[in-house]
Design brief:
This protein has helices spanning 24-37, 39-42, 60-70, 83-91, 99-106; strands at residues 15-18, 46-50, 73-78, 95-96, 114-116, 125-128, 133-135, 144-147, 151-157, 160-163, 173-178, 182-185, 188-191, 204-209, 212-217. It is an alpha/beta fold. It folds into two domains: 15-97, ACT domain (Alpha-Beta Plaits, 2-Layer Sandwich); 114-217, Pectate Lyase C-like (3 Solenoid). The strands form three sheets. A six-stranded mixed β-sheet has the order 5-7-9-11-14-15, with no helix packed on it. The chain is globular and about 55 Å long. The chain starts with 14 loop residues before the first strand and ends with a strand.
Length: 220
């Protein structure tokens, strides 16, 4: 007996581009810069565009083409309640993202912590689904560790650390020695050049406050 395809709910890590006005070129130029800085992370990555602050005159075809030209894949828009704008966005090939459903997905019950005792090598990806992640060794440059909950690294963190991957804004990153290429919580991220010198190579705690990353020294 042949098996039928199944449609199931799931969660994925998506970057979100927040338009602060209707200037599409400025927004897509910003994406180009990010892709050039971290191509292994952003190139061909899916992105959702939040148009809450973009006004009512949005050229969605230009927006879609600009995002694609920047090197990312536009999958949908959020923050759009106007039925007319939603129709235009759909005609341009965008999905309409439902923030309420995204929040429900982020509130799934957490599972026991995943513990990694060996080094995380370059090119390796570790994903702790619906749980916290503890790495009791080093994370090499080019490696990626992801958790739906918090991340704890007891060695040197040189790769990319992504906490709150399913949208959990209370997620936190704890690190004994921060030298990371990228840190992210619930879609908010910093590349290495955004990390202040006083925290580089130090023990830190990274959290999210009002949709902005906050970093402080780890008190031992």
């Amino acid at each position: 007996m042949s098996k039928s395809p199944e449609l199931k709910g799931s969660t994925f890590t998506l970057s979100a581009l927040h338009l602060v006005d209707g200037d599409i070129k400025q927004a897509t130029d910003h994406l180009k810069e990010k892709v050039s800085q971290a191509p292994s992370f952003f190139a061909s990555a899916p992105v959702v565009i939040d148009v809450t602050l973009a006004g009512s005159q949005i050229d969605f075809k230009q927006l879609k083409a600009g995002v694609e030209n920047a090197g990312m894949i536009p999958v949908g828009i959020s923050g759009c309640k106007d039925p007319y704008l939603q129709t235009q966005a759909k005609s341009a090939g965008f999905a309409i993202m439902n923030a309420a459903r995204q929040m429900q997905a982020a509130e799934k019950a957490m599972e026991p912590t995943r513990i990694i005792r060996t080094p995380v090598r370059s090119g390796q990806q570790i994903y702790a689904k619906n749980c916290d992640l503890v790495v009791m060794n080093h994370v090499s440059a080019g490696a990626e560790i992801i958790a739906d909950g918090c991340i704890h690294v007891y060695g040197v963190l040189r790769g990319r650390a992504i906490a709150g991957a399913s949208g959990q804004q209370q997620a936190t990153i704890f690190c004994q020695n921060l030298q990371s290429e990228l840190i992210s919580i619930a879609g908010n991220y910093w590349l290495s050049d955004k990390i202040q010198e006083e925290f580089w190579g130090k023990g830190v705690v990274i959290s999210l406050a009002e949709n902005n990353l906050n970093i402080e020294h780890l008190a031992l």
